[in-house]
Design a protein that fits this description.
- By secondary structure, this protein is an alpha+beta fold.
- The protein folds into 3 domains: 39 residues, no CATH class; 51 residues; 118 residues, Phosphorylase Kinase, domain 1 (2-Layer Sandwich).
- The chain contains 10 helices and 4 strands.
- β3 and β4 form a beta hairpin.
- The radius of gyration is 20 Å and the shape is globular.
- The chain starts with 11 loop residues before the first helix and ends with a helix.
- About 13% of the residues have low confidence.
């Protein structure tokens, strides 16, 4: 990392170094103060942090159900459209779209996320990063039946050492789309996903707590989505989606009472 003097413009390289905790203590404090005072700089940092999302983990729940032949056609079409509309280069948005299609085909390797478990809320921001990529269309070809739902929940329950039942995780008005174990930075996180016909994908995510404790329901917004989170001794829970805050809280209350 090259030397940087106080008051000098903050480069993307410096911001990435700040995200990865590669600055010395003095530089870290200086950049932190500038981020607090400069909204545009904070937005640049957010963009860089969003770019670190683990795409392969985000779309892992879709891989088993993915119709490969159809997705191959969609991928080829997406690349063709990107090349036609961007004769002098492909946009970042087009690249993301192509990456998502490629992941479903299993042709792109995993990209590592950053700082997931540095603190108790770091994992929630990483979950929000990949949830922001989900749309109705992400799950249009995913339709696990009752038997698959039971099997997936049993597998997740075993990994978490936490009882999970089909009845407790059947949400009125939302369609179950899958339950999987993901892995980031050597930590396991469960993802249970539904698709709400009005507000889109909704996920309950569960991971082992850094510090076992009891914590009541709390609300926040991350990446433009509403979040309710809570803790039950050895497990931390997070419900996230575009559902209105009040409606999401009602779902969280029901889930926290039954899970």
């Amino acid at each position: 990392m090259s030397q940087w003097q106080k008051g000098a413009p903050v480069s993307d390289e410096m911001l990435v170094a700040w995200l990865d905790n590669q600055l010395d203590e003095r530089q870290h404090r200086q950049v932190e103060k500038m981020l607090k005072d400069d909204p545009e700089l904070s937005e640049r940092l957010a963009e860089l942090d969003r770019a670190s999302v683990d795409f392969s983990a985000a779309f892992a729940p879709l891989l088993e159900e993915a119709p490969t032949a159809r997705l191959q056609q969609k991928f080829s079409a997406a690349v063709a459209r990107a090349e036609a509309s961007q004769p002098h280069g492909v946009s970042r948005r087009a690249l993301i779209a192509a990456t998502v299609s490629a992941l479903a085909l299993g042709v792109v390797g995993g990209l590592k996320g950053r700082r997931l478990f540095d603190n108790d809320d770091g994992w929630r921001d990483t979950v929000a990063q990949y949830m922001a990529l989900y749309t109705h269309q992400s799950f249009e070809d995913v339709d696990p039946g009752p038997e698959a739902m039971q099997q997936q929940l049993a597998s997740v329950s075993s990994h978490l050492d936490l009882p999970l039942s089909v009845s407790a995780l059947t949400l009125a008005g939302s369609e179950f789309k899958g339950a999987r174990m993901l892995r980031y930075d050597d930590k396991s996180i469960a993802q249970i996903v539904w698709d709400d016909p009005h507000s889109g994908p909704l996920a309950l995510c569960i991971t082992a707590s850094l510090r076992p404790a009891e914590g009541g329901l709390a609300q926040e917004k991350r990446r433009g989505m509403n979040v309710v989170y809570w803790q039950r001794q050895r497990h931390s829970f997070m419900l996230i989606g575009h559902k209105p805050a009040g409606a999401l809280l009602a779902v969280a209350k029901a889930l926290s009472a039954s899970v």
